[in-house]
Amino acid sequence: MDERRWSGSGTADAGPSIPPPESFVSRANMREDPREEFDEEWPGCWERAAELLSWETEYDTVLEDDEAPFYRWFDGGKLNAAANCLDRHLEGGAKNRAALRWEGKRGESRTYTYRELAVEVEECAAALSGLGVVEDDVVTLYLPMIPELPVAMLACARIGAPHSVVFAGLSADALSTRIEAANSEYLVTCDGYYRRGDAFNQKGKVDNAVLSVGHDVRATVVVDRLGEDLPHHLGDDQYDYHDLLAAHAGESVEPVARDSRDDLFVMYTSGTTGEPKGVVHATGGYLSYVAWTARAVLDVEPGDTYWCAADIGWITGHSYIVYGPLALGTTTLLYEGTPDYPDRDRLWEIVERNAVDVFYTAPTAVRAFMKWGAEYPESHDLSSLRLLGTVGEPIDPRTWKWYYRHVGGGNCPVVDTWWQTETGGMMLTTLPGVDEMKPGAAGPPLPGIDARVVDPDGEAVDPGEAGSLTIRRPWPGMARTLYGGDDAFVEEYWSRFSDPAAGDWVYDSGDAARVDPDGYVTVLGRTDDVIDVSGRRLSTAELESAIVATEGVAEAAVVAGDGIYAYVSPEQGVDPSRGLPEVIGTNVDDAIGPVARPDRIVFTPDLPKTRSGKIMRRLLGAIARGEDLGDTSALRNPEIVGELRETIGEE
Ligand code: 6R9
Fold it and tell me: Where does CATH 3.30.300.30 sit in the chain?
């Protein structure tokens, strides 16, 4: 961010506060605000997170900062993540509780009790060890949303081999880059998977990818997902998953006691801008933090059926489908597919059939539900729900309210959780049984978190002013480093606002934000996405929020082209030629000012998105400016790019 002032500060504010429903508060995991205590006790407060886990060896200290910003949490402690997610739940009745429920793409469903999941994880761990995997070998997992993915993650964790999960939809190229960067010699994948009913050949992509990896890939394990629908041949060093597990049936594998600071996994994130970075998470701090936040924010309880409808290939799936919920001994639901196949009520049918208690998804999904119409959620009994959450992008007040009303029936708090791959777990959000909600603002920092919005000199800005979102104290979920890139880690996140000579380390999130007088933070988007109009800086999130506030608009993305370009996706059945652009213009004038009025509005049925549902503004900017688009393989819906190019070219 440069010295110039932001425009639009103090406008497009979050809506008025909504108190959490009494029915929720009376049974919430957290009913008192612990923020003050956390501040007084910091960093000792984080023992409360560590206490949620079982430690093989007690830790010596809560926080070691002698190598800052390479902090060590719960140093001296030893634990195993898989043992925390499985073994310790096997005592007593919990072993027959469902750990995982899977809803497959073709209407199949499978349930694993904790006992059954533990058995398969041990067999998989035995199989991986049998292939030669030893502690600290990175194992790449290139699997769609099938139970074998969490099984393989936990099997790796059991033997102390960090996993690197790559989104199943990424290209062969993206896969080989990640295998190479992580120096990974072992791969678990599948023959193929179904997308909208069609069989896709995953193994073909894998074979191509492996050919272009610079080192030897010693073994590839292939899950047979499609059976007769896609016969395949196993080459040298390729093994059938089910045959391998059968060969190790019933074997037990002792969990490796890992140092708290040892790596649990690496996760490559390309985000919406830039090169992929291998974010590394250590075992003790990460697992404590995701368990603590799942309990405090998602209100997860052992008896719940909890559903995070995200992909495990995204950090959200690691933290809040697999590790957090299983560490707490709850039933976590895993779903494969898309929300509109076979029909647009698929998710609500799953909620009803499984009596889901807590539902967590991305704003982009909620905007799609809003676009399709309230009749889909309303045609199902959703009364089992007690809490809703969102993650991944700002959620505008209109979408928030739609979710609160049509999915939550006005009885469920909505938590808008801001966090990043690098933070490991949630950082800014309301505590659902404690804080009032303000639609459009993520909320205050969580207990123990010192988040500040600062100007280019690192000084806190006044309420209402926009600035850079920074974090001042370390927290247990934080990334340990970037894989093979300690220098890049410091450079990327800790150089902008820190004063190393004074021992003063400040984490730069790369996001822009604004705080209100109550300390609620509204995230305004990546600082790279900010647009510059005649010397004034406009936040994309604010502009988009003003556009989406227009009746008939489902989703919008704003970028700089020749002036301000707004890509707008209308709701189902809305004809945009009937005055919509004028209403949008007026709404933007009112919310921000005429300077922010889009110069060009392009209507489109969809916007290009990453696989975690983030709008790719970088691509939309390139389309608007007629530039080369670069690599589009990380897109969930690459076809839309060509369509938009044509639309813009034709006009
Ligand atoms: C968990 C995750 C991180 C970036 C982050 C920010 C955006 C995430 C948000 C949000 C506004 C929220 N983001 N949650 N923006 N409100 N509640 O998404 O990790 O994939 O690494 O992305 O996502 O821009 O910096 P990751």
Answer: 529-650
Put the strands of the sheet holding 466-471 in their side by side order.
451-454, 466-471, 507-515, 521-526
Collect contacts of 58-66 with beta carbons under 8 A, ≥24 apart.
59/260, 59/284, 63/474, 65/474
What SS3 class is residue 3? coil
Cβ(81) – ligand 1 distance below 6 Å: no
Residue whose CA is at the smallest distance from ligand 1 atom 22: 420
Can you tell me which atom of ligand 1 is nearest the CA of 314?
A: 20
pLDDT tens track for 517-560: 999 999 999 888 888 777 777 888 889 999 999 999 999 999 98
Residues 6+ apart with CB under 8 A from 586: none
Tell me whether residue 589 is exposed, middle or buried, using C-beta atoms within 10 angstroms of its C-beta: 0 to 12, 13 to 18, 19 or more.
middle
Residues of the chain with CATH 3.40.50.12780: 32-337+417-482
- What is the pLDDT confidence band of residue 399, given thresholds at 50, 70 and 90? very high
Distance (Å, whole) CA 552 – CA 196 = 27
- Ligand 1: distance of its center to the CA of 394 in Å? 8
Global ipTM:
1.00
Dist. CA 360 → ligand 1 center (Å): 14
Q: Which atom of ligand 1 is nearest to the CA of 416?
A: 17
Ligand 1 center–CA 424 separation, angstroms:
11
Q: Quick one: how many helices (H) and strands (E) in the chain?
A: 21, 30
| Closest ligand 1 atom to Cα of 509 | 25
- For ligand 1, mutation pick of 165, 393, 616 (most atoms within 8 Å of CB): 393
* CB of 272 closer than 6 angstroms to any ligand 1 atom: no
- Domain 529-650 indexed as CATH 3.30.300.30: yes
Whether the CB of 477 sits within 6 Å of ligand 1: no
**CATH number, span 32-337+417-482:** 3.40.50.12780
151 closest CA partner among 220, 230, 245:
245
C-beta of residue 49 within 8 angstroms of C-beta of residue 476: yes
- Segment (H or E) for 121: helix 114-130
pLDDT digits (tens, 9 = 90+) for 268-323: 987 555 578 999 999 999 999 999 999 999 999 999 999 999 999 999 999 999 99
Provide the token pair at 253. Answer: 């594998």
- Cβ(440) to ligand 1 under 6 A? no
Q: For residue 546, report the phi and psi dihedrals to the nearest 5 degrees.
A: -65, -35
The answer to whether 238 and 136 are in contact (CB under 8 A) is: no
C-alpha of residue 157 to centroid of ligand 1, in Å: 26
Q: Pick the residue whose CA is nearest to atom 16 on ligand 1.
A: 394
pTM recorded for the entire structure: 0.94
Q: Distance between CA 600 and CA 96 in Å, rounded?
A: 58
Helix, strand, coil: what percent of the chain each, to 5? 35, 25, 45
Q: Are 329 and 302 in contact (CB under 8 A)?
A: yes
Atom of ligand 1 minimally distant from the CA of 417 = 17
Range list of β-strands (E), 178-337: 186-190, 192-195, 198-201, 219-223, 238-240, 258-259, 263-269, 277-282, 305-308, 331-335
Residue from 270, 277, 514, 523 to probe ligand 1 pocket by mutation (most atoms less than 8 Å from CB): 523
Hey, whose CA ends up nearest to atom 5 of ligand 1?
420
Mutate to test the pocket of ligand 1, among 270, 290, 511, 514 (most ligand atoms within 8 A of CB): 511
pLDDT tops 90 at residue 467: yes
